[in-house]
Amino acid sequence: MHCVLRQSGATDSFSREIPERIQTERFALIDRGDYPFSTCHVDNFVEAVQLALGGGAGGRAYLINDRELITFRQFIAALADIQGLSIDSLRSVPYQVAFALGRFMEIAASLRSEEGDPPLTRAIVRMIGREFTTSNGADLGYVGGTFRTEGLEQMASAP
Q: What is the pTM of this model?
């Protein structure tokens, strides 16, 4: 089974890092974040895997997402809200500028021979800087039993 997964949940590092980056002003939206964005809570991912193992077609990719539609901006706002933060003053940069900046940071990081990824890469810009939506896996019988609001509540109460 092949999966494209943008996991969200209490242990998701992306979702955990965003509020800190907003607070330290090390985060900017790309094109205001006003584009559809699919998320998938880890519990929904497990649901889909169980369905695929129980009767999915072999050799096939299933792309799944949470039930609720959301924009990237709305998702980031919800993550910030968990920490009592607002995204109202976040900067926004055009996609092409973000992409060029990602390339520049990749080059700079390679010249410094530092371990780890730079704070922005072209891959990150491609992943979070434009529309990313998937089907709902209905042909699997997938429903997505965990709503995003439930997942965000779990995240807020996690240590």
A: 0.80
